[in-house]
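agent: user wants the structure for Lipoprotein from Streptomyces griseoloalbus. delegating to structure tool.
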Amino acid sequence: MHRSVRDGRRAPGLRRVAALAPAVGLLTALVSCTSQPDPLTTPCGVVVDGSGSGDATEKGFDAEAKLKGSLMPFLEEQKCGTVEFAPVTRSSKASSCQVTQVDLDPPGSETTNRDSARSKARGAAGQKALEELECARTQNGSDVWGALDRISEAMPGDGPDAKLLVVSDFAQYDKEFKISRTDLSTAQKRETAIDTLVKQRGLPGLEGMHVYPVGLGMQYDGRPSESEDFEAFWAEMLEGRAKAHVHYDYR
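agent: tool returned. relaying tokens verbatim.
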């Protein structure tokens, strides 16, 4: 009868297996350490509000603080692969404020620390966002509609659904339309106001995109009925008309 162990000695085959085990374990560890994470492919956009209502004052919503507090979690949690920027100014689509797109998943070699490279890219995006905000503040105004249109045009038409972070109180205010002077107290009046804007400017191409507002309606603090009407207006515009998906994760 065959036995693998004789006279207290390990059989040659078992000795070879035992000798190979540490090497196999080391190889497995090396493969694990050098394996790369899945690529980041989600196109993202960031809108920053340069209007006076975004100042860090008692009546302002402090756009810079909101941007700094929400941008990094947004980019990381939404797995953004690229990020574009758009300003809210007096005429957002025509604004000269423009910063370059940031690649949040920059190419590297097999030895590149992907987590470190991505973290550095997100830091660069943070600087770009602040540059866009600084420029927007020199042009003032509050054409939120135009900013949404501009950022939607910067998003690709294929691939994963775009994710848009919009740091604004959404207080549309320009020479042609002033939301603070518009009666939004009923669904019919809100629809009429949206019809007016769509007729004048068209509808931003947000269909299928995910919009994350930060600061929406903050100017109505302490006036709940006005706040509800204001938010209902934007909900109808973004979800009802533009067919976007609205989330309040970073509000």
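agent: one observation worth passing along. Confidence is low (pLDDT under 50) at residues 1-8, 26-32.
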